[in-house]
């Protein structure tokens, strides 16, 4: 298996372990709401957290999610009419981030993520975290030339409330409020949320895109292989994505599946399955450290 980047390894360990963020089931609410974004067709999209993104493949994407902390220009990665989103974690932060010491001193950080001890969970209710996101994290990404942000680890809010409903009361509401505050402060940027199904009903109208990660397939850490998820698991996510689109008809609904790229026929089948459901798919390897073009038909 390709050596994982620190970012990809941390995120996928959290998904694979199932203990903190994956598979938490939020109530489904399909009330309609106003749309904000026009459907400008971001059919070809991708994620690459690696430091050596292929410019030719990048420019073929209408929407591209990147790790913004690699020291590189992003102009060579921008195709005609494309949007580039910078990765940002709202539910936890790594010790290596420059704003970590200040947040620790302010008391805004909780315990370490059991799946990635170098990352600390954040108290989404803490004013220091809200200020850091709005005044530091998001502006820093936009200053690099990105068109918006890709919000990750928002599932932590629900996980924390479930694990300790008393001490962590209000985490979900605080997460939704934080996304709302970002939209208010930066009304023209593009915002994509990864999962976050507990907050999604409250923030769908404030998003441009939502991502269903590991929709049909994932990496099994115990068996050390890719595997298909059950139809019930797929439908559970699909129902929540459809409900979000019912609230915001202009919402771009993306999916991310993981599979061995040498298995071309299966990769094609994953793309086809998600498209049949009306979603915009991307299929990658576990590492998420390079771009994989869709196999030609």
Give an overview in words:
With 297 residues, the protein is of the alpha/beta class. It is built from 9 helices and 13 strands. The chain has helices spanning 6-17, 55-59, 100-106, 127-143, 155-163, 171-185, 200-203, 231-247, 264-276; strands at residues 45-48, 63-66, 83-89, 92-94, 109-113, 116-122, 148-152, 190-194, 209-213, 217-220, 225-228, 252-258, 280-284. Helix 4 packs parallel to helix 6 and helix 5 (155-163) runs antiparallel to helix 6 (171-185). The chain is globular, with a radius of gyration of 18 Å. Residues 1-5 and 12-42 have low confidence and may be disordered.
What does the oligomeric state look like here?
single chain
How is the largest sheet built, in terms of strand order? Answer: 1-2-3-7-8-9-12-13
Relative helix content: 25-40%
- Mind summarizing the main beta sheet? 8 strands, parallel
Q: Rg from C-alpha positions?
A: 18 Å
- In terms of DSSP E residues, the strand content is 15-25%
Record field, number of beta strands:
13
Mean of pLDDT: 87
Q: How many helices in DSSP terms? A: 9
Outline type = globular
Beginning-to-end CA distance, first to last residue: 26 Å
Structural class: alpha/beta
Order of helices and strands, N to C? HEHEEEHEEHEHHEHEEEHEHE
**Uncertain parts:** 1-5, 12-42
Features:
297 residues; alpha/beta; eight-stranded parallel β-sheet; three-stranded antiparallel β-sheet; 13 strands; globular; disordered N terminus
């Amino acid at each position: 298996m390709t050596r994982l980047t620190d970012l990809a390894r941390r995120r996928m360990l959290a998904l694979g372990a199932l203990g903190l963020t994956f598979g938490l089931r939020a109530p489904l609410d399909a009330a309609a709401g106003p749309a904000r974004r026009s459907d400008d067709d971001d059919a070809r999209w991708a994620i690459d957290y690696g430091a050596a993104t292929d410019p030719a493949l990048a420019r073929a994407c209408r929407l591209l999610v990147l790790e913004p902390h690699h020291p590189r220009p992003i102009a060579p990665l921008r195709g005609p009419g494309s949007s580039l989103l910078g990765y940002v974690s709202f539910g936890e932060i790594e010790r290596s981030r420059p704003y970590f010491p200040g947040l620790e001193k302010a008391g805004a950080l909780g315990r370490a993520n059991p799946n990635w001890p170098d990352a600390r969970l954040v108290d989404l209710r803490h004013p220091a975290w809200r200020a850091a996101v709005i005044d530091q994290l998001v502006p820093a990404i936009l200053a690099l030339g990105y068109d918006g942000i890709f919000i990750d680890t928002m599932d932590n809010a629900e996980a924390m409330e479930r694990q300790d409903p008393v001490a962590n009361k209000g985490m979900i509401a605080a997460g939704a409020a934080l996304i709302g505050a970002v939209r208010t402060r930066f009304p023209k940027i593009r915002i994509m949320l990864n999962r976050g199904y507990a907050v999604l009903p409250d923030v769908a109208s404030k998003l441009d895109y939502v991502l269903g990660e590991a929709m049909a397939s994932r990496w099994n850490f115990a068996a050390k292989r890719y595997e298909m998820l059950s139809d019930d698991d797929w439908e559970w996510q699909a129902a929540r994505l459809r409900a979000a689109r019912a609230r915001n008809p202009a919402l771009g609904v993306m999916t991310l599946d993981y599979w061995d790229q040498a298995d071309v026929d299966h990769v094609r089948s994953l793309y086809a399955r998600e498209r049949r459901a009306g979603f915009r798919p991307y299929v990658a390897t576990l590492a998420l450290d390079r771009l994989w073009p869709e196999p030609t038909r």
